[in-house]
Design a protein that fits this description.
Layout lengths: L1 H23 L11 H20 L10 H37 L6 E2 L6 E2 L1 H16 L2 H15 L6 H7 L1 H41 L5 H5 L2
Antiparallel strand pairs: 1-2
Helix pairs in contact: 1-2, 1-3, 2-5, 3-4, 3-7
């Protein structure tokens, strides 16, 4: 019992990081497709594996600073899952760019993955990206990444001190800028085509006002 109690704080910290990761990571964080008991179970199971692999190297004291450790590990897990989710955000933003040019920007739908309103093409591209991600065993690489995170960010790290120094904030800013740039590059061909089509329809409307441009243009 004394041995279990001495290693229990380490396991709880590992569980905090895993829980934060599965709250924001793609595939596992979907609201309706992945039940909450399954997410809790896989977080506990993955935490047990990570604890056996790297979580028991240095004991963490169970004192007043333990609350600080819990907040730190939870933020690390949320941050890692959020960075992984940015790759799927690229697809959704690209779909919204396409929707604006196609005239579907007003027709938002409820995305069952996130529970929020998303554009039509954005939801379609998101589902395709999710299927490709699962078919390429991307969820295996997600689990491998969170397991390997204990090599770079061990339990006895100074996460808040490093965050205050600036590198994580700079990394997130660059990640968001890169996500927006990639989304625009993905949507650029179709956006440019729709823009040229709008110009052609405008010239056609000026040349032949008798044509009902709304009936011809939308198809």
């Amino acid at each position: 019992m004394e041995l279990i109690l001495s290693y229990l704080p380490n396991f709880l910290l590992v569980l905090c990081r895993m829980t934060g990761f599965f709250m924001t990571a793609p595939v596992f964080s979907t609201r309706n497709n992945v039940p909450a008991p399954f997410r809790i179970g896989i977080a506990v199971y993955t935490a047990f594996l990570a604890f056996m692999a790297a979580g028991a190297e240095r004991l963490v004291p169970f004192d007043s600073a333990f609350v600080y450790f819990v907040i730190r590990e939870s933020l690390i897990g949320i941050l890692l899952g959020f960075v992984a989710y940015l790759f799927f955000t690229v697809v959704q933003i690209a779909g919204s760019f396409i929707d604006m040019q196609m005239g579907l920007g007003i027709a938002n739908v409820i995305d069952p993955m996130t529970g929020a309103q998303n554009p039509v093409m954005g939801s379609f591209k998101f589902v395709i990206a999710m299927l490709l991600f699962l078919s390429w065993n991307g969820h295996h690489y997600l689990l491998l990444g969170i397991m390997d995170s204990y090599r770079e960010i061990p339990l006895d790290n100074s996460f808040f001190a490093v965050m205050a120094a600036g590198p994580p904030a700079e990394m997130l800013t660059k990640a968001l800028a890169t996500a927006f740039t990639l989304a625009f590059q993905m949507a650029a061909p179709l956006v440019a085509t729709m823009f040229l089509l709008d110009v052609a329809l405008g010239m056609l409307a000026k040349t032949a006002p008798q044509i009902n441009i709304f009936v011809v243009g939308i198809p």
